[in-house]
Write a structure and sequence with these properties.
Elements lengths: L1 H7 L6 H12 L4 H9 L4 H33 L22 H15 L3 E3 L4 E3 H4 L19 E3 L8 E3 L4 H10 L4 E10 L11 E11 L4 H16 L5 E8 L2 E10 L16 E10 L1 H6 L8 E8 H9 L6 H4 L2 H4 L6
Bound molecules: adenosine-5'-[phenylalaninyl-phosphate].
Length: 338
């Protein structure tokens, strides 16, 4: 009874008062719990009566507590130094940036520091920008290097509409409208009619680079790619350019980076070779410069196109490209703070 009396005399002017009440009566070391401890010593024949009293008291104290809470809320008001400690917890629903977004941003950042500005182009494209202007001759088998999703037939092949198969279409659009010196990075989504597997998808992203100016050389291309690889994957990263073929560059190369996951020891990612392909590159073919209105006698240029999923898979040690597009929060939430 004395406890009940004591409790009933409390009033709350602030959240702190309410908390003090809780500490005094309801916490682990509070008065109510002390009584429950004494309960153990009560002789068996009195346990029933004592227990009932105790439970009644508990309910009364809890009722008093809720009314104090209301009082405290009304009189106190809340501010930064006096927060409402009784508000329900706000769940931590903050999302994470998608690993492809993180990778895209990092790529733009690295090239921005080398003086490359960012450009954008359409995903739905005509045959002209995706193929013909890039020196893929009409009806030539080279077009089959990239299986294409067609949208509509045009009058002539160059007027067909399609989903772009690479970001190289933006090169042509840029050179049409801007005169050298040109130094741009173009990042975006591309589509290919390919079977989906752990390593390949029918939609993925590329980062295209284009540099056109007087006296741009293959050596500039190599230095730029090496610098990028070191910034992206660490200063010990090496690059290797393997001779290859693209209709719009001459000479052309595949870009490999040294596999920093196994450091050349041989792992599944690099298929035990110590090298992984991340993209293609080369010196812009004079035909392409010319068909975009740039004089190839005066200017030269290099271009490259890299797979962003490939880069993100290496960077974050992801073994299946499909994970990027499943939207599974268990996967995505691992990139919080990355
Ligand atoms: C091209 O797309 C050329 N446009 C690159 C280029 C640009 C060369 C400028 C010269 C000058 P390729 O088809 O090899 O090239 O693709 C480039 C990269 O895209 C590949 O190295 C790979 O990283 C990525 N890639 C290609 N196909 C897929 C796919 N199905 N899924 C995921 N990534 C892919």
């Amino acid at each position: 009874e004395s406890i009940l009396k004591e409790a009933s005399e409390w009033s709350a002017k602030s959240a702190q008062d309410v908390e003090n009440f809780r500490l005094a009566f309801l916490s682990k070391k509070g008065k109510l719990n002390q009584l429950f401890d004494e309960f153990k010593q009560v002789p068996n024949e009195k346990k029933r009566e004592f227990g009932q009293e105790l439970n009644k008291l508990k309910t009364q104290i809890e009722e008093k507590f809720s009314s104090l809470q209301e009082q405290g809320n009304e009189s106190g008001g809340h501010s930064a130094d006096r927060p409402d400690i009784f508000l329900p917890e706000v769940p931590d629903g903050l999302g994470a940036l998608h690993p492809l977004t993180l990778t895209r941003r990092r790529i733009s950042e690295i090239f921005a520091r080398m003086g490359f500005n960012s450009e954008d182009g359409p995903e739905m494209e005509t045959d002209w920008y995706n193929f013909t202007a890039l020196n893929f001759p009409e009806n030539h088998p080279a077009r089959e290097m990239q299986d294409t999703f067609f949208i509509a037939r045009g009058k002539e092949q160059k007027d067909d509409t399609l989903l772009r198969t690479h970001t190289s279409n933006v090169q042509i659009r840029l050179m049409e409208h801007q005169k050298p010196p040109l130094r741009s990075i173009m990042i975006g989504r591309v589509y290919r009619n390919e079977a989906i597997s752990a390593r390949a998808h029918c939609q993925f992203h590329q980062a295209e680079g284009l540099y056109v100016d007087k006296n741009v050389s293959f050596r500039d291309l190599k230095d730029t790619l090496l610098h990028f690889a070191k910034e992206m994957f660490g200063k010990d990263t090496k690059i290797r350019l393997r001779p290859s073929y693209f209709p719009f560059t001459e000479p052309s190369a595949e870009i490999d980076i040294s596999c920093f996951i196994c450091k050349g020891e041989g792992c599944n990612i690099c298929k035990k070779t110590g090298w992984v392909e991340i993209g293609g590159a080369g010196m812009v073919d004079p035909f392409v410069l010319e068909s975009s209105g740039i004089d190839p006698e005066e200017y030269t240029g290099f271009a490259f196109g890299m797979g962003i999923e490939r880069i993100a898979m290496l960077k974050y040690d992801i073994n299946d490209i499909r994970l990027f597009f499943d939207n599974d929060v268990r996967f995505l939430s691992q990139f919080k703070g990355a």
